[in-house]
Amino acid sequence: MKKMGFGAKLASFFGFRKTLDEKFYEDLEDMLIEGDFGARNAYNISEMVQDKKPKTEEEFLGLVRSALDDKVKGVVLDPDPSKLSVYLVLGVNGVGKTTSIAKMATYYKNKNYRVVMAAADTFRAAAIDQLELHSQRTGVRIVRQNNGSDPGAVIYDAISSAQAKGDNLILCDTAGRMHNKENLMKELQKIDKIIRARVEPENYKKILVIDATTGQNAVSQAELFNQAIGLDALILTKYDSMAKGGAVAQIGIPVAFVGTGEHYEDIEVFDRDTFLSSLAGI
Ligand SMILES: Nc1nc2c(ncn2[C@@H]2O[C@H](COP(=O)(O)OP(=O)(O)OP(=O)(O)O)[C@@H](O)[C@H]2O)c(=O)[nH]1
Ligand SMILES: [Mg+2]
């Protein structure tokens, strides 16, 4: 994971300032907002620092870290190999759903899971072929139908065929966009119903992919999907290309994986401690 995260900026910010005056706290608040921590978190953290008046950089960073400590959560997605698990991968277009599925497929295959990918993004013309290519490259089986077919039917098929063949993990790709948001959410609710009728709740996870470079947008996306079908975990992608990650502290849903590049191996199990260090610099 990144060594030079937002925390590096925080550290140099403290280092450059001679006095902790009004301007310092204002700039700190602005900086936290720019880091996607959200206005409320930024205000609270700045107030808290003002209250405690840290004397050293270490003290300062420690205070920020302590404020973020209970806001950043991690979860380990460790499917029970004796059961069939379904992971529904969600997110708006372009965040990295399909890539993350290919990475997870590789990750779980290497842990000896019998993985299937379900091509349930039937809305975008090239989506199925894109997943098919990942299937060929990773050697993970794909269940697919034609473009425009019902995504719920694809997942239904994937579940039946996994049960028949003794596979134990289905990773479902989904559309990031439809004619409008309402359509997408309705479609996802239908899919959700189909899975819930066939898979035990503890083996079914709804995972939202968010792009670390989009900041505040990721927060509204999480709210939207969470309201529509409920979320169990996040995947934070593109954490390689930028230093921010504060949105995670605003969303409050536990992070399972972090994507750090475009290759199949560029995925890490979320490490809360390392992430907090990269956010707070200590
Ligand atoms: N640098 C970097 N690029 C990533 C990462 N994850 C995905 N990408 C890139 O982001 C772009 C979009 O990824 P996709 O997996 O196609 O995104 P998607 O959410 O499936 O997009 P739609 O199917 O259009 O909704 C691709 O160019 C990926 O290579 C990551 O962790 N780091
Ligand atoms: Mg896709």
Which short descriptors sum up this protein?
282 residues, alpha/beta, Rossmann fold, 2 domains, 8-stranded mixed sheet, 11 helices, binds guanosine-5'-triphosphate, binds magnesium ion
What is the count of distinct domains?
2
Strand content: 5-15%
CATH topology of the largest domain: Rossmann fold
> What CATH architecture label of the largest domain applies?
3-Layer(aba) Sandwich
Structural class: alpha/beta
Order of helices and strands: HHHHEHEHEHEHEHEHEEH
Mean pLDDT: 94
CATH class of the largest domain: Alpha Beta
> What is the overall number of helices?
11
Annotated CATH homologous superfamily of the largest domain = P-loop containing nucleotide triphosphate hydrolases
Write out the distinct hetero groups bound to the structure: guanosine-5'-triphosphate, magnesium ion
Largest sheet: 8 strands, mixed
**Rg calc:** 21 Å
- Basic shape: elongated
Terminal residue distance: 14 Å
